Structure formats: C-alpha cells, structure tokens
Amino acid sequence: MRKIMIGADYFPPYQYIDEKGEIQGSDYNFIKSIFDKMNYEFEFVLGDWNAIEKKFINGEIDVVFQVQKTKEREKTSYFSDKIRDAKTGIITNSKKMSNEIQKIEDILKKKKILAVIEGYNYGDIIDSIDKKYKKAYKNDKGLINHLNSSEDGFAVFDIGVFNSLKDTINKKLYIIEGLGFTRELFVMFKEKDIRDEFNKWINSVSM
Q1: For residues 32 and 44, is the Cβ–Cβ distance under 8 A?
Q2: CATH number, domain with residue 66
Q3: Which listed residue, of 31, 87, 107, 115, carries a Cα 20 to 30 Å from 126's Cα?
Q4: Sign of the CA dihedral 100, 102, 107, 108?
C-alpha cells in the first residue's frame, strides 16, 4: 500500500500538536477522516509554512492543507473542492485607530505597518499592498509580539486563530469592523488521481 505524506503549518485551532505530542485540530480531523476512507497509508507532518511548502515543491510531501488557490500554484498542483471559508480580519492594539480606520487605504495613508505571516497568500486585498507597508513574521507568535510591542500596531489574523490566542496577548485588542474578508481554502495535491479520489469523499464528511 502506498504511503502518502500530508503536510500543514502549525495553525491552532485548525491543526496543532497537543501536550501529548499528538496532532489535533478541526481541519486536521476533517482531512484525516477523508483519508481514513481512502486506500492509502498516510502520515501527517506539521511545520513552518515555508518548510512545508518547500517539501511539497521538492516532492517530499504529497498533499498540503489548508491552502489558498493561486494561478501560480495551479500551474504545478491540483486542488480539491473547497474545504471551507476562512474569516480574516485586521486587528489593532489602538482603540483610537479602530475607530478612525474605515478601509485598508486609511492604514496606508497613516503610514502604519501591517504585520503578516511570511509566505502566506491572503488574497488580493492584502497581497496587493506595497511591501513597504507590511512586515512579515514566521508565525502567529510574531504577529502577537508585533501587537504587544508596537504603538498603533496592526496585524492580519485568521479570526479563528486570533480567538484561540488572544488570551496570550497582554494588550487590549480590537477587530476593525468592516475590514473583514473571507478566503476560500483547499487541499493541494501533487497527483491528480489522489485529488480526484479525495473529492469523491469530501462531501461525505462534515467539518
């Protein structure tokens, strides 16, 4: 039986390693439940996104989740049907800024910096912003440190992740109303036949 390597980044509460060293999380459970129905031996591995993506490109990993579809990725990979929508928002540590900011352009006009995660595709709303207005961090801990240490700090957060981590942030934080957006997430495959089999089961399992 062929063994499939499945990779993702650390992204609690969607996929993470618990105190027993075991992988947990809602997206992990969903993906695993589908592969349980498929005729493959499989193994999950979690790591920083840049490392996971590099292993996928090099063929060391066969499947990665949860991924945003881009034209560049579609040239070399196969995407599942949509697994869910991700809700993303702009978080600030400034009550004043949370009241003043009405749109993304307001942040740029004030020459403020948006903290983002390195290598992530957020969609055109964020990805099209000039790099001089963004500071990239390796993971969500970097975003938290940015908000803890910055005056009038801003960070782009998955709302589910933010809600799971907000108790670790020592400043009062605000989700800027009206700046939230959704992103479609998929599973990305090296091989079309595995993708096709995965899609056969995707609607039989609930998130």
Answers
A1: yes
A2: 3.40.190.10
A3: 31
A4: negative
Burial class (CB in 10 A: 0-12, 13-18, 19+), 71: exposed
| Residue 152 and residue 179 in one domain | yes
Domain of residue 30 covers 3-84+186-204
The per-residue pLDDT of the chain, averaged, comes to 91
Q: What is the dihedral of CA 112, 113, 114, 120, to 10 degrees?
A: 150
Token representation of residue 1: 């039986």
Instruction: Kindly tell me if the per-residue pLDDT of 79 is higher than 80.
Output: yes
Q: Are 161 and 12 in contact (CB under 8 A)?
A: yes
Contact 136, 157 (CB under 8 A): no
Cα torsion 70, 25, 87, 137 to 10°: value is -70
Write down the residue that tokens 């993971």 correspond to.
139
CB-CB contact of 139 with 119 (8 Å)? no
pLDDT digits (tens, 9 = 90+) for 160-169: 988 888 777 7
The pTM of the full predicted model, rounded to 2 decimals, is 0.82
